[in-house]
Amino acid sequence: MQSPSPGENQADVQVNATAYATAAITQWTVCLDSQAVYQTSSSATSISTPIDMTAGQHLLWAAVSDAAGDSDRSEIHLIQVGAPPASSTVLPTPPANATVLTEMQNDQSNWSICGLCAHGTNSGGTYTMTFDQGTPSLSGSSMEMYADGPSWNNVLFMDIMEGTSSNSHFLWDFWVYHDPTVEAHYWASEFDLWQVLNGQEFMIGSQCDFGDGYWSTWDSQGGSWILNGIPCPHWTAGWHHVQWYYERLSATQYRYDTLVFDGQGYGFNQTWNSNTTTWPDMIGIQYQLDQDPTGTPLHEWVDNVTLTMW
User: Fold this and answer.
1) Which of 28, 45, 103, 202 is deepest in the core (most CB within 10 A)?
2) Surface-to-core class of residue 252, CB atoms within 10 Å of its CB (0-12 exposed, 13-18 middle, 19+ buried)
3) Whole-prediction pTM
4) At the topology level of CATH, where does 7-81 sit?
C-alpha cells in the first residue's frame, strides 16, 4: 500500500495499492477497522480509491487475492484522522519537589543486558556494555553498548529500579552517539521507559525506525509499534539530544506528550492502554540496538542520562 502514509491523515484519504503475484488477481478489498469499505473482482494489479473516515484512530488495510487461492494484505495505523488535538511542542518545567536521577549511565549495579527478550528475528552473537568511557563523551563518562551477530539481531540494555512509585510524570533526557562508520546499518535505535504498578505494565517505548524512516511509538496493550508521521532518517555524525515527556494518566492508560530531538519539538498527545503483568512494581529505562540484514556490528554511546519524575 503506497498511501496513505503513517501518522496524521485527513478525513478523506486516497488508498493506492499494488499487488505482486504469479497468478491472475481475482479480488481487491479495502477494510477500515475490520469492515469492508471497498471491494472489486477486478483483475487489475493496482487500485486507487478514496475512503472517508470519521475523526479518531483507525486501522486501514488493503487485501488482494489471486486465482491460485493466495492472499495477502498491507496495513497502516492512522493515529489521528482529521485535525489533531492541541499538543505542546515545549517540555514542561518540573515542580521543585520532583525526583531527579542524574548520570544514570554510571549506575553500574542496576544495568543488565538481554538478547532473547529483545525479540529480534535472530539471537546470539556478542554484546557488551562498557562504563566510564572518555571518548566519545560529553561528561567524561559515557556508557558504550555493543552488539554483533546474525542478521536482524536485537539487544536490550536495561536499567531496572524495583520498588513502588506513584509518579505519573516522566521527563527523560539523554544524549546518544552512533558509530558514524556504520550508520547505514542501524535498523532502529529504541528508547523505552516503563513503569509497573499494581500488575499493570506501562511500556512507554519509542524508536527512531531508520529502516522505515519514521519515529514510532509502542502500543503496550496491542503489543505493536505504531509508525508516526515524523521523519527519522539516519543520523549525521556526532551527539544527538533526545528529550521525552510522558504521563501515566490513570491505572491503565499512558500518554506520549512531547518529543524534542536536537532542539526540534514534536507534540504527540498519543494515548494507549497498559497490559497486565506478573512483574513486581518497578521503573526502568532501556536502550535497544537493532541490526539490519547484514549483521554489521554496532556501537552506541549514551551520556548525561537524566530522569525527572513527579
Assistant:
1) 202
2) middle
3) 0.79
4) Immunoglobulin-like (2.60.40)
